[in-house]
Amino acid sequence: MSISDLFDSGFRNRNKGHFSAIVRVAMSDGSISPEEKQFLDKLAIKLEISQAEYEEILENPLKYPVNPPLMHTHRLERLYDLARMVYADHILGEKQQDLLTRFALALGFTAGNVGYIVDKALKLVDMNVDLDTFTYEMQHMNR
């Protein structure tokens, strides 16, 4: 196996882990709404998830672990996707917010400020900000 194959495999596994985490958020209330399905379809294309992988992850979203990115900006991108999924159907249940908090911790955000980070992320998503604005606001938030 070449080094490029190893890199590609690791990259694809991280994408599958990220996608499966988002599927878990979508399924946290027992079903996937049409808005959530639309978001998953677009994200699958963005993350280069094949149709077979998509179906496999829907069947067993726990198969792939959350692999936290090393760079803070990449963690924020993942948090952005997760927060958008939590809020995709514009109904924020307690279970969904708890799940987002657990994923934020898995992404490497600290327990001491994860509540504030999740709250800020959900407020920004509610305001329908784009990724650049989200990243900027999260990096420059007052603690």
The structural class is mainly alpha
**Count of alpha/pi helices:** 7
Beta content comes to under 5%
So what's the CATH class? Mainly Alpha
Number of strands: 0
Rough outline? globular
Helix percent reads 55-70%
Which H/E pattern describes the elements? HHHHHHH
What profile does the largest beta sheet have? none
Contiguous runs where pLDDT drops below 50 for at least 5 residues: 1-7
* Mean pLDDT, all residues: 82
The name of the CATH architecture is Orthogonal Bundle
Measured distance between first and last alpha carbons: 46 Å
- Number of individual domains: 1
Radius of gyration: 15 Å
Fill in the CATH topology: TerB-like
Organism: Flavobacterium aquaticum
InterPro entries: TerB-like
Protein name: Tellurite resistance protein TerB
Question: Can you give a write-up of this model?
Answer:
- The chain contains seven helices and no strands.
- It is mainly alpha-helical.
- The chain has one domain (3-139): TerB-like, CATH 1.10.3680.
- Helix 1 packs parallel to helix 4.
- It is globular.
- The model is unreliable at 1-7 (pLDDT under 50).
Give keywords:
143 residues, mainly alpha, TerB-like, 7 helices, 0% strand, globular, disordered N terminus, Tellurite resistance protein TerB
Q: How is the secondary structure organized here?
A:
Layout: H1 3-27, H2 34-46, H3 51-59, H4 72-86, H5 94-106, H6 114-126, H7 131-139
InterPro entries: TerB-like (IPR029024)
Organism: Flavobacterium aquaticum
Protein name: Tellurite resistance protein TerB
